[in-house]
Design a protein that fits this description.
3 strands, mainly alpha, 222 residues, globular, GntR_C, 73% helix, 9 helices, 2 domains, Arc Repressor Mutant, subunit A, Four Helix Bundle (Hemerythrin (Met), subunit A)
């Protein structure tokens, strides 16, 4: 079981508290604390996190909008089950978005952004070497998000953000497979080389291949 990495600081306002609870629940869903099909009981979350049921209820609405759970009158909140076809379709779209983002970023990358990517990449490798899967995954996700966020296309960035809310659990499944984790680490070095060289075609092509490979791995696990 992966350790719960939820933040411990409780915000003051009701809106911030709901977002705080939602972040905790998202992290637990992604990292398998709440597996697909499991129920998230409002009363238990409220007691555990020492908050009222109102922000928990609002938090569940937020992660429902992300496509991570379903909420029904009879069963309450349940973590969505995933299918192989859905995973392949989802990663096909994400691969297209991220490859476009990598192309655009390679054309416009500045030293500051490249330095940030280099730092994240080195940190990710360190977490991999010591077997820290949770922090490896979080840093890996930061790299993907930065490449998309810095590409200069807000439509790509916003669409990607919404899809990744649904894809993060699937990506975490993939890195828990040792052989795929080793492949993914190697696959991250190739687009980094393309970005350093300002090679837009190479960055896009390599990044798309990386995401499609991840999608195929996830589909095989479902």
């Amino acid at each position: 079981m992966v350790a719960d990495t939820a933040p411990t600081h409780r915000p003051d306002s009701a809106t911030a508290t709901a977002q705080w609870v939602a972040d905790i629940l998202r992290d637990r869903i992604v990292k398998g604390v709440y597996p697909p099909g499991s129920r998230i009981v409002e009363r238990k979350i409220s007691a555990e996190l020492e908050v009222s049921r109102t922000p928990v209820r609002e938090a569940l609405k937020l992660i429902d909008a992300d496509g991570l759970i379903t909420i029904s009158r009879n069963k309450g909140a349940q973590v969505l089950q995933y299918g192989a076809e859905e995973a392949l379709a989802l990663f096909d779209v994400i691969a297209s978005l991220e490859s476009l983002a990598a192309e655009r970023l390679a054309e416009r990358i500045d030293p500051e952004t490249l330095d940030r990517l280099e730092e994240m990449h080195d940190r990710m490798l360190t977490y991999h070497k010591v077997g820290n899967h949770s922090d490896y995954f979080d840093t890996n996700s930061e790299i993907h998000d930065l490449i998309v966020g810095a590409c200069g296309n807000p439509i790509v960035t916003e669409t990607h953000r919404k899809l990744m809310a649904r894809a993060r659990r699937r990506r975490f499944l993939a890195i828990m497979k040792p052989e795929r984790l080793q492949e993914a680490v190697a696959e991250h070095e190739e687009p980094m080389q393309a970005l350093r060289a300002g090679d837009a075609d190479g960055a896009g092509r390599i990044w798309r291949r990386h995401l499609l490979h991840t999608g195929a791995t996830v589909a095989a696990l479902l």
